[in-house]
């Protein structure tokens, strides 16, 4: 598994939105440490569509099938990236609900996840994530809802800690 070898494609409007903020977009909108260990690669990232891949090998349960939790990690990664991009630099996305339906088992190959928005509001975003095999057969359908919170915590008032 290890480091990503593929560069994530960001649309020009996202690059412009984050320009000058000193933010490493590929690092911020990546699969993170867990995703790296699982071999997840984010190929395309925009608020309206996020695409990523994950190998089946190394992400199986004891029976040799793709682990449902691995599909959930791929789904939450892609949906969270979409929600973060929708929220923009002033918001962070926090997953509050994830559900997944597993349609078929796989023993080898690579799966591709595609996250598309179902709802994009001011305080929440919901994405449907469809995970397919190399023959474009649906392996899993997931839905992720993220709460959108301010990226910088608000100053404490009236003796509160400012923490949720």
Short description:
The chain has helices at 12-18, 25-28, 32-38, 68-87, and strands spanning 41-46, 49-55, 91-102, 110-120, 124-132, 138-150.
Task: Give the topology.
Layout: H1 12-18, H2 25-28, H3 32-38, E1 41-46, E2 49-55, H4 68-87, E3 91-102, E4 110-120, E5 124-132, E6 138-150
Antiparallel strand pairs: 1-2, 2-4, 3-6, 4-5, 5-6
Task: Write structural notes for this entry.
The chain is an alpha+beta fold. 23% of the residues lie in helices and 35% in strands. The chain has helices at 12-18, 25-28, 32-38, 68-87; strands spanning 41-46, 49-55, 91-102, 110-120, 124-132, 138-150. Strands 1-2-4-5-6-3 form a six-stranded antiparallel sheet, with helices on one face. Strand 5 (124-132) and strand 6 (138-150) form a beta hairpin. The protein is globular, with a radius of gyration of 17 Å. The N and C termini lie far apart (36 Å). The relative contact order is 0.16. The model is unreliable at 155-164 (pLDDT under 50).
Key terms for this structure?
4 helices; disordered C terminus; globular; single chain; 6 strands; 23% helix; alpha+beta; 6-stranded antiparallel β-sheet; 164 residues
């Amino acid at each position: 598994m290890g480091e990503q070898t593929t560069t994530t494609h960001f649309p020009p409007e996202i690059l412009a939105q984050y320009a000058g903020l000193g933010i490493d977009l590929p690092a911020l909108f990546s699969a993170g440490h867990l995703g790296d260990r699982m071999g997840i690669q984010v190929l395309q990232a925009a608020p309206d569509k996020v695409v990523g891949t994950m190998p089946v090998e190394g992400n199986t349960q004891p029976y040799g099938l793709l682990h449902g939790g691995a599909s959930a990690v791929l789904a939450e990664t892609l949906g969270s990236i979409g929600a973060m991009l929708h929220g923009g630099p002033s918001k962070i996305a926090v997953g509050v609900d994830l559900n997944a339906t597993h349609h078929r088992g796989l023993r080898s190959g690579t799966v591709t996840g595609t996250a598309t928005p179902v709802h994009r509001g001011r305080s929440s975003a919901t994405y449907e994530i469809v995970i397919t095999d190399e023959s474009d057969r649906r392996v899993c359908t997931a839905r992720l809802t993220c709460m959108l919170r301010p990226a910088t915590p608000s100053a404490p008032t009236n003796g509160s800690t400012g923490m949720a």
